[in-house]
Amino acid sequence: MPSDKSLRLGVNVDHVATIRNARGGTHPDPVRAARLAAAAGADGITAHLREDRRHIVDADIERLMAEIELPLNFEMAATEEMLAIALRHRPHAACIVPEKREERTTEGGLDAAGGHNRLRPLVGSLADAGIRVSLFIEADPKQLEAAVALQAPVVELHTGAYCDACLEGDGAAAGRELARLTDAASLGAALGLEVHAGHGLTYDTVTPIAALPAVRELNIGHFLVGEAVFVGLEAAILQMRTLMDAARAETLEA
Ligand code: PXP
Predict the structure, then answer these.
(1) 171 CA → ligand 1 middle, Å
(2) Which residues are known catalytic residues?
(3) For the segment 120-149, what is each residue's pLDDT rounded down to a tens digit?
(4) How far is the CA of 72 from the centre of ligand 1 (A)?
(5) CB 181 within 8 A of CB 158
(6) Nearest to 161 by CA among 147, 175, 151
(7) Closest residue CA from atom 9 of ligand 1
């Protein structure tokens, strides 16, 4: 069992399905990728069943639930259709993500504050079914407080703006975004929320996020699948894990 302070890695297999769907057919298979991820030391599998089924499709979710022992983090829009699918499969966790512009904050996370009345029954139904609910939000105190008001036990902080700033070589913006994430992770933990993070993380951006002591899980997909083209999925995951563990070890020593 991982220790209480450990940092989990959820591997998002969406973009294995993106490549499969580019040609149709069955190859490459996201469930095979999930099996490999488990062998490489992933702690969970993440998959986003989008309303337009552009990558993961319903049969993938069925197979991930039936064939993979790792907990599934089912990313879903806040719709009746997705709620029914989640309740049918009862994954370990459901992460509510925005798919439509009006569900997002200006930065891109779910508008948990503005969507309280719409989201509260959905969060309640998922929780009643024993599914751990997570909200994919911006690193914004207003959104963290909204997550508490919605009785969601988990938030996933959107790392996209931080990763974009790093990619653009804008050190000042990256520093600002990292400070925002650092503050939000601490506030989230102080409010009693379990804090996760993800979106756009790479070998170059993961270390400062993995070093945040309040962060308990990272969900990473696109970069790992891209890197797998060059080194294989297992090697890509192992390298990410190594970087995460090194960052964490330094945090624990400090
Ligand atoms: N977390 C959430 C909530 C996501 O929706 C995604 C996919 O966009 C990820 C993490 C993984 O992001 P990426 O594929 O950029 O690593």
Answers:
(1) 23
(2) 48, 75, 199
(3) 999 999 999 999 999 999 999 999 999 999
(4) 14
(5) no
(6) 175
(7) 199
**Per-residue DSSP letters for 177-227?**
HHHHHHHHHHHHHHTT-EEEEESS--TTTHHHHHT-TTEEEEEE-HHHHHH
Q: Domains, the chain, ranges and CATH? A: 8-249 (3.20.20.70)
**Which numbered atom of ligand 1 lies nearest the CA of 219?**
10
Task: Give percent of the chain above pLDDT 90.
Answer: 94
The model carries a pTM of: 0.97
Tokens of 14: 């969406």
Question: CA 61 from chain center: how many Å?
Answer: 16
In ligand 1, which atom is closest to the CA atom of 95? 3
Tens of pLDDT, residues 6-32: 899 999 999 999 999 999 999 999 999
- pLDDT tens digits, residue range 136-191? 999 999 999 999 999 999 999 999 999 999 999 999 999 999 999 999 999 999 99
CA distances from 73 to 14, 79, 162, 196, 218 (A): 12, 17, 23, 12, 12
Which residues does a 6 A CB cutoff place in the pocket of ligand 1?
A: 12, 48, 75, 95, 97, 136, 156, 198-201, 219-223
At residue 252, the pLDDT reads: 75
Give the residue, out of 103, 138, 209, 219, with the most ligand 1 atoms within 8 A of its beta carbon, to mutate for a pocket test: 219
